[in-house]
Design a protein that fits this description.
The chain is of the alpha+beta class. The protein is built from one helix and seven strands, in the order αβββββββ. The strands form two sheets. It has a five-stranded antiparallel β-sheet with strand order 1-2-3-4-7, with helices on one face. A two-stranded antiparallel sheet has the order 5-6.
Length: about 180
């Protein structure tokens, strides 16, 4: 009798453990879906912000014939302060101006980045990085300049992409990135 009770108890224990693993698996599936949605939302926000920064550089250049370097915007647990784009958790925004920007013999350019930064202490996931550029290039047969821009998204997570290039009248994304704007 004791052996029967022991076998039945072991059976129920195995059944309960199996059921808890099954339910935990369902919970993880929902958690994974929620995490994927959060990552997608964060990446879309970063893309939107970087496109805005690139458009602002183009507008500024059309009025002032130069680019500007805004302050770096590191993400914090409550977003950057002062918040340029509202709360930007998980991404930091950085800008580099071409070292030869004052030279009249090279193409002027400004590069802006959105890279994973402080994420409220949560580093269990990786976000795609973005790089954008605005190039001031001469108009053929004219002394005027026009701007060409691009925004690229990294294919690999967490790897800051290289700078876009302007070659023979074409602006292109660096390797391991895709054009998003």
């Amino acid at each position: 009798m004791k052996i029967k009770i022991l076998i039945v108890s072991a059976y129920f224990l195995v059944l309960i453990i199996s059921l808890s693993f099954l339910l935990a698996g369902c919970e993880n599936k929902d958690e994974n879906k929620a995490m994927d949605e959060k990552i997608s939302k964060l990446e879309k926000e970063a893309e939107k912000h970087l496109v805005y920064k690139i458009q602002e550089q183009q507008s500024y250049f059309s009025k002032h014939k130069t680019f500007f370097k805004p302050p770096d915007e590191r993400g914090t647990n409550s977003g950057y302060f002062p918040p340029i784009f509202g709360t930007q958790i998980c991404y930091g925004y950085y800008t580099e101006i071409n070292a030869d920007v004052l030279s009249k013999t090279t193409i002027d350019a400004v590069y802006s980045y959105a890279v994973q930064d402080y994420c409220n202490g949560k580093w269990g996931f990786e976000l795609k990085s973005y790089v954008g550029a605005v190039f001031a290039v001469p108009i053929t047969g004219d002394k005027q300049l026009k701007t060409l821009s691009i925004v690229c998204k990294s294919v690999e997570s967490f790897a800051p992409p290289s700078q876009p290039e302007y070659i023979n009248g074409v602006v292109k994304c660096p390797n391991k990135t895709t054009k998003v704007y």
